[in-house]
């Protein structure tokens, strides 16, 4: 949700204040995948934002657009279908570890490890009176930024290790603006409604689950992806199509390596994380398996030893299952580890 809300919000700011070429927020997904993002569809429905008003990456061929200038939000390297835009990127606004990609026309870069990129977008709105007036005049946008920060930071929960003082400050400022319009729901009410929508995956197939929160990157000719799935390995095994869906999804997206980060709350209401590492052919997977198990402080992975999981691993040399004891680490922490490892392998 962070990428989508930030792209739309920053495009609104750029278009209203700077004038010149038209600024549009381009969503980093195909239109057909939008319905899988249940937290976004819920939020936009609540705010009266119509799907037909949105632009998706499969609407046009980006490389054929003349004079295109790109601002990356919630990323600091063009990925997937945007990978061909390295010459068009002029600005970055992000909260992930800097992957230090070669961007020849980059003019401005702001990377700060806050809980949500929406925090940095909100800060930009609040930094000058003209942009602040835009925010005050658009309660829907203000609500979207507020909800995104709360969802990303797990309701500003310090125990999850995502929240910074700036996230808290921006939440308080956005709430103050919204209170000028009408009585406001509590942080918990806003967070819970979005969290419930995000966790509503009952109608999604396994392939749709993998598409719901998916990002991909390239390291030279190697393409790898990350999917975040709100399900445990044991629950997925009950569906009966775990390995088949990983293989089919990797083939459809041209991936050599797929990392699936699973997050869920168990029957005792304890939040847990698990990880699946899958590769189509035997390449870097075995070495990456060893490397990831060495990341004790960041990940603290423990190999799953359940019989059914062991049987799957024994039948294939290309899949690994782990419990992740450090639940504070998300894709934001794991993806740079994988990326830098693959960079090292590619240079050998």
Describe this structure in words.
The chain is an alpha/beta fold and 348 residues long. The chain folds into 2 domains: 2-197, Alpha-Beta Complex (inorganic pyrophosphatase (n-terminal core)); 206-346, Diaminopimelate Epimerase, Chain A, domain 1 (Roll), CATH 3.10.310. Helices cover 41% and strands 17% of the residues. It contains 13 helices and 11 strands. It has helices at 2-17, 38-47, 117-126, 129-136, 139-152, 165-178, 187-198, 206-212, 233-239, 242-252, 285-293, 307-315, 331-346; strands spanning 26-27, 55-56, 70-73, 89-94, 108-111, 214-219, 222-229, 257-265, 271-279, 301-303, 319-324. The chain has a 6-stranded mixed β-sheet with strand order 6-7-8-9-11-10, sandwiched between helices. A 3-stranded parallel β-sheet has the order 3-4-5. Strand 1 (26-27), helix 2 (38-47) and strand 2 form a beta-alpha-beta unit. Helix 1 (2-17) runs antiparallel to helix 5 and helix 5 packs antiparallel against helix 6. The model has no long low-confidence stretch (mean pLDDT 91). This is DHHA2 domain-containing protein. It comes from Arcella intermedia. Residues 191-342 form the DHHA2 domain. It holds the Pfam family DHHA2.
Radius of gyration: 20 Å
The structural class is alpha/beta
Overall shape: globular
CATH superfamily of the largest domain: inorganic pyrophosphatase (n-terminal core)
- Quick one: how many beta strands? 11
Number of separate structural domains: 2
Can you name the CATH architecture of the largest domain?
A: Alpha-Beta Complex
Alpha-carbon distance between the two ends: 37 Å
What's the story with the biggest beta sheet? 6 strands, mixed
**Percent of residues in beta strands:** 15-25%
Average per-residue pLDDT, rounded, comes to 91
Spans with pLDDT under 50 lasting ≥5 residues? none
**Widest β-sheet, arrangement of strands:** 6-7-8-9-11-10
Q: H/E element string?
A: HEHEEEEHHHHHHEEHHEEHEHEH
Task: Enter the CATH topology name of the largest domain.
Answer: inorganic pyrophosphatase (n-terminal core)
Write down the CATH class of the largest domain: Alpha Beta
Helix content: 40-55%
GO cellular component, one term: cytoplasm
Pfam family, one: DHHA2
GO molecular function: exopolyphosphatase activity
Organism: Arcella intermedia
């Amino acid at each position: 949700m962070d990428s989508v809300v930030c792209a739309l919000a920053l495009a609104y700011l750029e278009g209203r204040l700077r004038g010149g070429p038209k600024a549009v927020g381009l969503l980093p997904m195909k239109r057909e995948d939008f319905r899988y993002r249940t937290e976004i569809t819920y939020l936009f429905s609540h705010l009266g934002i119509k799907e037909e008003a949105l632009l998706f990456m499969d609407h046009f061929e980006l490389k054929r657009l003349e004079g295109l200038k790109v601002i990356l939000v919630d990323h600091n390297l063009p990925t997937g279908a945007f990978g061909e835009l390295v010459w068009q990127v002029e600005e970055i606004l992000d909260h992930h570890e800097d992957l230090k990609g070669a961007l020849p026309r980059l003019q401005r870069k702001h990377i700060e490890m806050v809980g949500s990129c929406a925090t940095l977008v909100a800060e930009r709105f609040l930094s000058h009176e003209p942009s602040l007036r835009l925010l005050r005049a658009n309660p829907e946008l203000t609500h979207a930024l507020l909800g995104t920060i709360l969802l990303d930071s797990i309701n500003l929960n310090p125990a999850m290790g995502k929240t910074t003082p700036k996230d808290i400050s921006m939440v308080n400022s956005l709430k103050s603006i919204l209170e000028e319009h009408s009585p406001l729901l509590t942080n918990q009410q806003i967070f819970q409604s979005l969290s419930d929508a995000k966790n509503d995956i009952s109608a999604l197939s396994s392939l749709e689950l993998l598409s719901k929160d998916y990002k991909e990157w390239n390291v030279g000719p190697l393409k790898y992806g990350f999917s975040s799935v709100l399900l445990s390995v044991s629950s997925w095994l009950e569906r009966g199509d775990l390995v088949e869906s990983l293989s089919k999804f990797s083939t459809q997206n041209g991936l050599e390596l797929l990392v699936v980060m699973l997050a869920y709350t168990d029957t005792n209401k304890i939040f847990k994380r698990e990880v699946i590492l899958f590769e189509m052919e035997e390449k870097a997977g075995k070495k990456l398996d060893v490397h990831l198990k060495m990341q004790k402080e960041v990940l603290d992975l423990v190999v799953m030893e359940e019989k059914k999981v062991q049987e799957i691993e024994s039948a294939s040399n290309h899949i690994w299952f782990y419990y992740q004891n450090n639940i504070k680490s998300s894709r934001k922490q794991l993806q740079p580890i994988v990326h830098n490892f693959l960079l090292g392998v590619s240079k050998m």
